[in-house]
């Protein structure tokens, strides 16, 4: 075995030792968490799963269900090596807080589910923190505005009386919900509906994301809806838009080339087949297709169909300025 082979073998052995040590540590953490649950909450918590937090953190995370609430999830971070839980707190206190947090989220989830159901929408998935709910609807130009308003009214029932808040609702086509992963029938509802496989299945196709904001006691108003495309569709969309943009600008500004696309995903109000956003372009030709350290000579407003084809002439919204680090800066006009 050569030197490189011996080095690879040593690294592999070290990784295996760390992994086996982590598994042993997780077993100890799980045993401690289960013992703690039986002692402090007898008959209330049921062990569901555990995972090591290494290498990001020390210790393990142990997940419980509650026997008296089928929706609640209780997560406890344990590190028996130092005899502490969570962020270096006594385990008894951390478990009590975790149980209270799990019950609070379960109650919020039930309230959200009921509010959406009153508007005729089934809650198909949601993050465990009861954020970013997923529903399904087949929207058309004639009903998209009314449907988004109705969803806002549902959210107002859910968050009534709270401080100013913002909620993002994801809307998939109805067909996306036909064969969703269950997330495990024996698991708490919030754990099942926040399962990565379930969320991924809903996000696999085109879907709409809408941000709602509201002041206390007010009706949430939907901000611009964003059409999210799967990775390969997004790549094809941007390639089509780049070619169309360059061709349209060639006669107006010779040498102009579209370099970066910023949020060309916002739906035109009242439409589900038109998107709008900004294109940064430069008159400088370069083998580098980015703008890092170079001027962005133009910022143009564009309107496209769902495949990236321009349906209106690009409108130059701003000229001049400098892009630093390739990040969106004050060049972008605030409104679309």
How would you portray this structure in words?
The chain is α+β, with helices and mostly antiparallel strands. The protein has 3 domains: 22-106; 119-225, no CATH class; 231-319. It is 34% helix and 26% strand. It contains 6 helices and 12 strands. It has a 4-stranded antiparallel beta sheet. It has a 4-stranded mixed beta sheet with strand order 5-6-7-8, with helices on both faces. Helix 2 crosses helix 3 (144-158). The longest helix has 38 residues, at 3-40. The radius of gyration is 26 Å and the shape is elongated. 30% of the residues are buried.
Main sheet: strand order: 1-2-3-4
Q: Please give the largest β-sheet.
A: 4 strands, antiparallel
Report helical residue fraction.
25-40%
> What proportion of the residues form beta strands (DSSP E)?
25-35%
Report the count of strand segments: 12
Give short descriptive properties of this protein:
336 residues; alpha+beta; 4-stranded antiparallel β-sheet; 12 strands; disordered C terminus
Describe the structure in brief.
The chain has 336 residues and is of the alpha+beta class. Helices cover 34% and strands 26% of the residues.
Secondary structure blueprint with pairings:
Blueprint: H1 3-40, E1 45-52, E2 60-66, E3 69-79, E4 84-85, H2 91-118, E5 134-136, H3 144-158, E6 165-172, H4 189-193, H5 196-203, E7 207-214, E8 221-228, H6 231-250, E9 257-267, E10 275-282, E11 298-304, E12 315-319
Parallel strand pairs: 5-6
Antiparallel strand pairs: 1-2, 2-3, 3-4, 6-7, 7-8, 9-10, 10-11, 11-12
Helix pairs in contact: 2-3
């Amino acid at each position: 075995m050569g030197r490189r082979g011996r080095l690879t073998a040593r690294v592999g052995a070290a990784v295996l030792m760390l992994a086996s040590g982590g598994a042993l540590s997780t077993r100890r953490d799980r045993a401690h968490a289960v013992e703690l649950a039986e002692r402090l909450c007898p008959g209330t918590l049921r062990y569901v799963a555990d995972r090591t937090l290494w290498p990001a953190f020390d210790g393990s995370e142990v997940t419980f269900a509650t026997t008296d609430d089928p929706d609640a999830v209780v997560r406890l971070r344990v590190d028996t090596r130092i005899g502490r839980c969570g962020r270096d707190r006594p385990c008894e206190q951390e478990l009590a807080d975790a149980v209270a947090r799990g019950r609070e989220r379960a109650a919020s989830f039930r309230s959200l589910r009921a509010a959406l159901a009153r508007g005729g929408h089934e809650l198909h998935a949601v993050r465990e923190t009861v954020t970013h709910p997923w529903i399904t609807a087949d929207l058309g130009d004639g009903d998209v505005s009314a449907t988004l308003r109705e969803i806002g009214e549902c959210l107002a029932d859910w968050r009534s009386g709270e401080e100013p808040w913002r909620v993002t609702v994801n809307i998939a086509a109805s067909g996306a919900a036909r064969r969703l992963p269950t997330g495990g029938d024996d698991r708490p509802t919030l754990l099942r509906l926040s399962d990565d496989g379930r969320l991924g299945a809903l996000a696999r196709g085109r879907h709409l994301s809408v941000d709602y904001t509201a002041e206390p006691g007010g009706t949430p108003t939907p901000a611009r809806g964003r059409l999210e495309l799967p990775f390969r569709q997004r790549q094809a969309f941007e390639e089509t838009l780049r070619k169309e943009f360059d061709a349209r600008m060639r006669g107006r500004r010779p040498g102009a080339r579209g370099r970066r696309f910023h949020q060309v995903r916002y739906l035109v109000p009242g439409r589900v087949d038109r998107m709008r956003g900004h294109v940064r372009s430069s008159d400088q030709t370069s083998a580098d297709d980015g703008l890092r350290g170079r001027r962005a000579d133009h910022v143009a407003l564009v309107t496209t169909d769902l495949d990236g084809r321009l349906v209106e002439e690009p409108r130059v919204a701003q000229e001049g300025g400098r892009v630093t680090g390739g990040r969106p800066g004050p060049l972008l006009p605030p409104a679309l």
